[in-house]
Amino acid sequence: MADLPDLDVLLVFFTAAVALGFAPGPDNIFVLTQSALYGRLAGFAVTLGLCTGLLVHTTAVAFGIAAVFSASAVAFNIVKVLGAAYLLYLAWQAFRAGTSSLSAENRFRPGLAQLYRRGIVMNITNPKVAIFFLAFLPQFADPTIGPLAPQLLGLGFLFIVATIFVFGTVAWGAGYFGEWLTASPKAQITLNRIAAVVFAGLAIRLLTTQR
Fold it and tell me: Is residue 16 part of a domain?
């Protein structure tokens, strides 16, 4: 088994990962809105989807694929446009949901598998995540103790553990808010409209992202 960085380095890494997870950003906002709209399980499904996407980014960084996004403007822009288009599609869905019947019994609820897939797509189609991993993970790897790829995979796994902890906390807290929403159709409509604006804003933010 390949050596990993010292425990103190791993603790610093984990602490930084937790802090980054709690910093406002597209992923935790996504978890927050979906948890408030559809409940804690929805938030946990989205979280698992996002973390599955992180597995892809971790593997890409470990084996050098992410360097393509850093070096190629074309590859970066293609993935960026695809991600923005998906977010705009979610914005339209959220806006339309606000005009339908929203009682607890018959309001539209995406399945957990669908929410899981949303998390995967949103994470994978954000090229900044790959570039962030490319810049962040190697800072904690040490080429003097062994091959870098296994170290980067281990660090990526630890980052995912931190992300599950942070986003799971967000989903749990937002779930309480969601329970109150089920008793207020007007509030549900309002939150769906807010979610639509958030998704559209995230799409614009992604489109204006520079490498």
Answer: no
Q: Which residues 6+ apart lie within 8 Å of 99 measured at CB?
A: 189
How many Cβ atoms sit within 10 Å of the Cβ of residue 14?
17
Query: Residue 43 is part of which domain span?
Result: 39-207
Separation CA 38–CA 17 (nearest Å): 27
Token reading at 130 = 């790959």
Write the DSSP symbol of residue 100.
S
Q: Which residue has the tokens 């969601």?
A: 178
pTM, full prediction: 0.69
* Residue 177, SS3 per DSSP: helix
From CA 40, how far away is CA 115, in angstroms rounded? 12
Domain total of the chain: 1
Identify whether 67 is part of a domain: yes
pLDDT of residue 46: 94
Please tell me whether residue 40 adopts helix, strand or coil conformation: helix
Q: What is the 3-state secondary structure (H, E, C) of 19-31?
A: HHHHCCCHHHHHH
| Cβ pair 167, 47 in contact under 8 A | yes
Give domain status of residue 117, yes or no.
Answer: yes
User: What is the average pLDDT across 150-165?
Assistant: 91
- Residue 84: inside a domain: yes
